[in-house]
Amino acid sequence: MIPVVAVFIIIFSINFYFNSSPVTKVQNINIMLNFNDDNADSHIDDQIILGFRIPGTQAREDCANYFISKFKEIDSNFTFVLHNFTIHSTNCQNVLFKLNENQSNIVILGAHYDSRKRATKDPDLLKRNESVLGANDGASGSAVLIELAKAFYDVRENLSCQIWFLFFDAEDQGYDEGGPGMVGWGWAEGSKKFVNDIENFYDSQNETFDAMILLDLVGGLKLQFIKEKLSTSSLVDELFAVGRALGYTTQFPLNPASEKITDDHQAFLNIGIPSADLITKFWDKSLWPHHHTTLDDNSSITTTSLEATGRTVEQFIYNNYFNTTIDIYKGNYPWKEDIDLFSSGITITVMVTIAVAAIVIVIVNIIKTRFSSVANPPQKKVHFFSK
Ligand SMILES: [Zn+2]
């Protein structure tokens, strides 16, 4: 048993080493950041004025058209793709914009834009059938994407990656403790559909995905990002280090909460794309009491949170992809997938082999002992008497 225990301890230690997060050192390149948080704030207002952007509604459709109009303001020829799908016969639509299509390595920046049909966590039980305006839960991430698109467009010729700005429908209608947003719907349905059809949206012979960064609930008061457990840890760690180096130490705390969150990044992780969910600690009522309530309106949005999110993602992209004549700094690029030795086939094979070997050794030893005791019976003690 000792070898088995020893190997178990060794594997545990290696696992701990790879999956614990030594503080990633970043070197934020010295560059002007152009993300404008006031503009992002107004993009939130623009979305919620359309009404509840619930799947299947006119407001949802108006919101998709709003994104198209904003990207056409940046460039009337901005490439966009509408991804239509249905969930329980309801027409839904993801909206994708592509920048720098001449580059073959793609970074996806995503956010959901649907708002929740039912305020299932509203403190007022009578309001739980009302809808959520989703200023933070939906509109904030989408608003940051629009503003990032503007910032990156201006320096696009200096960026060595293609960037997708991807707005998901049908994320926020699943079941929480107060019931469903929409009956029978799961979480993050839009991103699953997108990934199912992803071959239609890129040239798999010539294009590859570097990373996916999801922004969810990023504009509320007391923003405090978590280290989302499903996310690729080297990618999350780097985003935290970039944000902290920019001075956003409350938004990117040194010891963040760590939880598994079902969200739009999961489908991308499932096809092997390093992905990170930047999401606030939304279940902590002392930080964000408005999750899935009718109070998720623009009165609880702050430009400070939008700024911390937007500038961190902007800096992250420049650190990794801005072409400069000086040595290009790469953080944890290419953000390899996490390896969990406990769940890998190799570990199981090694463990079983060692266990079998240990049993064989024990049996052999028993047989040896028996054999030698038969061949050499214990001798009677002989007492010698000296004269
Ligand atoms: Zn939500």
Biggest sheet architecture: 6 strands, mixed
Helix fraction, binned, reads 25-40%
Spatial strand arrangement across the major sheet: 1-2-4-3-7-8
Query: How many structural domains in the coordinates?
Result: 1
Average pLDDT value?
A: 90
CATH superfamily: Zn peptidases
Number of helices: 9
Distance from N terminus to C terminus (CA atoms, Å) equals 52 Å
Named CATH architecture: 3-Layer(aba) Sandwich
Question: What class, by secondary structure content?
Answer: alpha/beta
Q: What compounds sit in this structure?
A: zinc ion
- The CATH class, by name, is Alpha Beta
Could you write a compact summary of the structure shown?
The protein has 9 helices and 8 strands.
Q: Can you walk through the features of this model?
A:
The protein is α/β, with parallel strands linked by helices. The protein has a single domain (30-321), classed as Zn peptidases (Aminopeptidase, 3-Layer(aba) Sandwich), CATH 3.40.630. 37% of the residues lie in helices and 13% in strands. The protein has helices at 2-19, 37-48, 58-74, 135-154, 189-196, 233-245, 266-270, 303-321, 345-375; strands at 79-87, 90-99, 105-112, 162-168, 175-176, 179-180, 208-216, 275-279. It has a six-stranded mixed sheet, with helices on both faces. Strands 5-6 form a two-stranded antiparallel ribbon. The longest helix has 31 residues, at 345-375. It starts with a helix and ends in a 12-residue tail after the last helix. The site of zinc ion has 4 residues, from loops. Zinc ion (ZN) is lined by residues 116, 137, 172, 292.
